[in-house]
Write a structure and sequence with these properties.
The structure holds two protein chains of two kinds.
Chain A: H1 10-23, H2 29-46, H3 62-85, E1 93-98, H4 104-116, E2 120-125, E3 131-136, H5 142-161
Antiparallel strand pairs in A: 1-3, 2-3
Helix pairs in contact in A: 1-2, 3-5, 4-5
Chain B: H1 3-29, H2 33-36, H3 38-61, H4 68-94
The chains are: A mainly alpha, B mainly alpha.
C-alpha cells in the first residue's frame, strides 16, 4: 500500500500545494493538511491523462511567450471589437494548419493560444496530431493565418520543446 | 485611496465592461454558430482580464494585500475558456451545424 503514497509528478504536486495555500485564507494547519492531500490525490487521478511526461527544455522562454500572447490578445481584441460593431459582414474561414510541433502538451498550448487570441478558434486536431483545424473570424487568405501563427506562436514553442 | 488609483481602477472597469458588452453583442449579431463562438471566448480574455486588474489594484491600494485569488481565477478562466470553445466547435462539427454561406474552407470529417 505504500507505493500508492508517492507523488508521480512532483512539480504538479508542488504547484497544486502552493495554489491551495493561496486560495485558502492564510496558511494554517488545516490548509497545509488539505493541500498535501490534494497535491497527492489530483496527480493520482489525472495520471492516466499524461501518457508522456511533459518535457520542457527551455522553460525560461515561457514568460517571454506569455507576454507576447498578452500583447497580441489586447491588440487583436480591439480589431475584433471593431469588426463586431461595424456593419460589414465578417469573412470567416476554416484553415487547416500543418503542425510542426509533436509533443501533445505543446500542441495543446498552441491550440489554447489560438483560441485565446481574438479572431481565431482552434476547432479540432486531426487523429494523427499533424493538422489543426482553425476557424478564423475574419481572414484575408489561408496563408496569412498560417504564417501569422507559425512565426508568432509555433516557432517559440518549437524552441521551448525541442 | 489616492485619486490617481481611483481613476485607473474606474478606467479598467470601463474597459472590462466595454469588451464584455461587445462580446455579448457579437453573440447576438454574428451570423452563424462558428463565428458566434468567437464572441464569448474573447470577452472573457480582455473583459475579465481588465476587471481582474481593477480588483487587484483596488485591494492592494487599500492595503488588504495583493489579491492572488483574483489572479488565480483569471488564470483558471484563461485555461478553461479555450477548452470549452474547442469542445463546442467539435460538437458542432460532429452534428453538422451549417456555417454561413461565404465561409471558405471546410470542416473535415473524421
Amino acid at each position: 500500500m505504500f507505493d500508492r503514497l508517492n507523488f508521480p509528478q512532483p512539480w504538479l504536486s508542488l504547484l497544486l500545494f502552493v495554489i491551495w495555500q493561496f486560495l485558502s485564507d492564510g496558511i494554517s494547519g488545516a490548509s497545509v493538511v488539505l493541500g498535501l492531500f490534494l497535491a497527492w490525490l489530483i496527480p493520482q487521478i489525472t495520471q492516466g491523462f499524461w501518457p508522456q511526461r511533459p518535457a520542457f527544455i527551455h522553460p525560461w522562454r515561457m514568460p517571454m511567450y506569455l507576454t507576447r500572447v498578452l500583447m497580441d490578445i489586447i491588440v487583436a481584441s480591439v480589431s475584433v471589437a471593431r469588426l463586431i460593431l461595424s456593419p460589414r459582414a465578417p469573412r470567416p474561414m476554416f484553415v487547416c494548419y500543418p503542425l510542426e510541433l509533436e509533443h501533445p502538451l505543446a500542441i495543446s498550448i498552441l491550440a489554447s493560444t489560438i483560441s485565446l487570441t481574438p479572431g481565431t478558434v482552434s476547432a479540432d486536431v486531426s487523429d494523427d496530431n499533424k493538422t489543426l483545424l482553425i476557424h478564423a473570424l475574419d481572414a484575408q487568405s489561408e496563408q496569412e493565418v498560417i504564417d501569422a501563427i507559425k512565426t508568432r506562436y509555433e516557432k517559440p514553442l518549437l524552441e521551448m520543446f525541442k | 485611496m489616492s485619486e490617481i488609483a481611483e481613476y485607473i481602477i474606474a478606467a479598467l472597469l470601463l474597459v472590462g465592461g466595454f469588451f464584455t458588452l461587445v462580446g455579448a453583442i457579437g453573440l447576438a449579431r454574428l451570423p452563424d454558430f462558428f463565428t458566434r463562438l468567437h464572441g464569448p471566448t474573447k470577452a472573457t480574455t480582455v473583459g475579465v482580464g481588465a476587471i481582474m486588474l481593477a480588483s487587484v489594484l483596488h485591494f492592494s491600494v487599500n492595503h488588504d494585500g495583493i489579491g492572488i485569488s483574483e489572479i488565480l481565477i483569471t488564470v483558471f478562466l484563461f485555461m478553461t475558456a479555450p477548452v470549452s470553445a474547442n469542445i463546442l466547435a467539435k460538437a458542432a462539427m460532429h452534428i453538422g451545424v451549417k456555417s454561413m454561406d461565404d465561409t471558405r474552407g471546410k470542416p473535415w470529417e473524421q
